[in-house]
Hints:
By secondary structure, the chain is α/β, with parallel strands linked by helices. It has 19 helices and seven strands.
Amino acid sequence: MSYADGRLIHDADSHLMEPADCLDPYFEKRLLDRFLALPRVKELRTGAKAEHVGERLALQQDAAFRAEADDNILLRKNYDAHGAWIRQDRPHTLDKLGFASQLVFTTHCLGNFGLDQSDDMELCYAAADAHNRMMTDFCSIDRRLLAVAYVPLEDFDRALATAKLALELGAKALMVPSLCPQHHSPSHVALDPVWAAAQEAGVPVVLHVGGEKKLNPMYKENGLPPVPDFHGGDDNFTSVSYMPIPEAAMQTLATLIFDGVFDRFPDLKWGAIELGANWVPGWMRAMDSAAHAFMRNEERLQKLSAKPSEIVRRQFRAAPYPHEDAGWIIRNAGEEIAMFSSDFPHVEGGRNPLKRFDETLQDLPKSAIKAFYSGNFIDMMGEGLAPDLRVPELQQSA
């Protein structure tokens, strides 16, 4: 019996746990040395952390360790998780989880090594292309694994070329940063060809944690000892660094809506993944208030096809964290938005995400629960999800 136990569940957030050299076989050879010379890349390949990753990946080859994989499918996390990096293991992992599909994101390459904020756009887009080759190659082993490609928005022509290549490679979603590009808005009309390519392919554009504006480090300078996060360090999720995670996403998505991008591409769906969703109801109301307050003076607001909150329900989907009250989010944002995600194999996803979400959904109508576990994901994914995966025969007869 699988973890999903016959329920139709699509997973809006899962990950690979890549070694530091994961992009090397996919990188344009003439640029690889330049990439390896980056201080951030050098740091990832040396020291105790690199040794730890090597040890954990080597353990994946141990027969005794592998024999216990099925009993620990949601208990082992990060590099210890079955199918986290060994490509041939991931379909079996998905069988044990029982999810109809998984949207698959990187871990190692989130943020594109800071290259989006650099002056080296050739290397920025080369890293994105290498990432996209890696992700689509990994996911090609099983059609239930839906590869997410990355498209930097810094250079108009290069962004379109990277998006087109990703779609040709078989990417099922395009990830863009929530952080604003250096020299223009994410709503700039010169990026319309990128959105048009995604809409034509029938795949969504998503934002994911890792591409946002980071916490000002001075907030940590409080005269007290460092606060450990889930991973034992102090550079990921803590109570303070958690707070600004959705800020850039809220601003970027609001700008895209106000500047008419959602309306210019009405069939294009957008997603916010691993950015939480507690912020969504208030954000929707804040946009409606802004539209009401500035409607008289702003022609762009007068041209909107509907209230911003209605546009959100039409085209935007978000994945709550398992510690959030998904039922409250649905009651206050509408049934059309929230989606289940496991965050497999990250520690943040917990050992029993279904239990945690089920507890918050108890008083909701069946239609809302179905939308949360499958319907909203199916709607967001569009042509990126094969028709037979939307209602697999097993779950259809269950």
